[in-house]
Each structure stands twice: as C-alpha cells, then as structure tokens.
Structure prediction request, 221 residues.
Amino acid sequence: MMFGQLTKSDDGYDLPLVKTGSAIRMANGQISAGGVQSLDPDALKNKYGIVRIQTVRPALDKFQREVEAGRELDGTVYRITYSAADIPLDQAKAEALSEIATTRFAVETGGVIVAGKFYGTDRDSQAAIARATGTVSWKCNATVTRDIEQPDGSTVPTLCVSAAKFVDSDMDAVKTAVFAHVASAYAREAELMAAINAASSVAALRAIDLTSGWAAVPPTA
Prediction:
C-alpha cells in the first residue's frame, strides 16, 4: 500500500493518498476514534489510514486555557476539539498581580516632563535626582511632537523625546515631579491590587481593567 508525504495546513495535517481498511472500519464505528493512542502522523497514516488530522481551537479570553473537549472521526478526518476554560482563581490572581507589577515598573521608570524637558526616572536617575538640589546642568531630552502612525494607518500628534543634551535644570522642581510620578504609579498599583484580591471569581477578575488609570509616559520614537 502506498502513502504520500504529510503536509501541514492552517488547522491540521493533510495526507494526500487514500485511507486503508482500518480507516473504513473507524468510519463505520468498528474502531473507536477515542481509541487512537498516538497522534504521530505516520502512525495514524499507516495504522488507521487517516487522511487528515484536524485541531479545532477556541478563542481564549484573559485567564483562560484550552481543555480537550472531544475527539471524533469524520470519514478520514480525525478531529480533536478544544474548549476554553477559566484557570483557577488563585492562579488568575497571581497572573493579574504580576501583570500590574510589570506595568507599574514600566510607568515608574518611563520618565517625566518638567518645563518642556524629559527626565529619566529609572532607578539610578531617581536616586541621582533625589540627591540633587538647586540649578544643575543636567542631562535630559527636549520634548517634541511627532505624528505617530496608528495600526489603522492614521497618525496622531504625540509627545516624544528627542536626543539627550545638558541643560540648566531646576532640580527641586524635577525632584517634586519625579516623586509625584513614582507615587502615582505605586498608588495605581495599590488600587488594582485591592480590586484583584477582592475578586470572587475569574469572571469578576476579568472585568477589572488592568491597563487604565496609569500615568502617561511619552514615547521615545
């Protein structure tokens, strides 16, 4: 008996040649589709004569994973279907807390604008600014407005930062702005942490918007 080479398609594998007698018996219910132990294409092809292995997957919402929902033989197509299921609440909360911690760090260290200049707020810059006082020749970036292209092809005037240079800076004003920016990032994280910990179900947790309410950070491109 001859078989062609296995080829991959968007939702499964195609075998170009005909099914064997075993596949006919499977199609007639004489061999259970659930009894197929191996999903190795060559084993399926040679032992059962299955021409196509198809996987049907669901769209997943946040805090969901795939679970196998069933297997069936439809002629020479062996179909494996998955459904979406919520992950355990404790795991979902842990993922949400990790996500907002990552966002808080990105916002905290994303920089601030003071008197038309962009100042870094990474941890080293925070420490250096906290020690500075008075007027200091400080490395910062001038802010510029650029038309940033959106996914739909339109453009939006967006505040960006230009090349770094040294300028005379009022470090007390910069310090105040940096402290306020960092405090805002931690305050938003605290609000979201309370909401996450209070969620009584994965659906309630999914309803919490983890992306809004954060301080804006000017893009660098």
Observations:
- The first helix runs from residue 21 to 27.
- Residues 1-7, 13-21, 27-31 have pLDDT under 50 and may be disordered.
- The chain is about 35% helix and 30% strand.
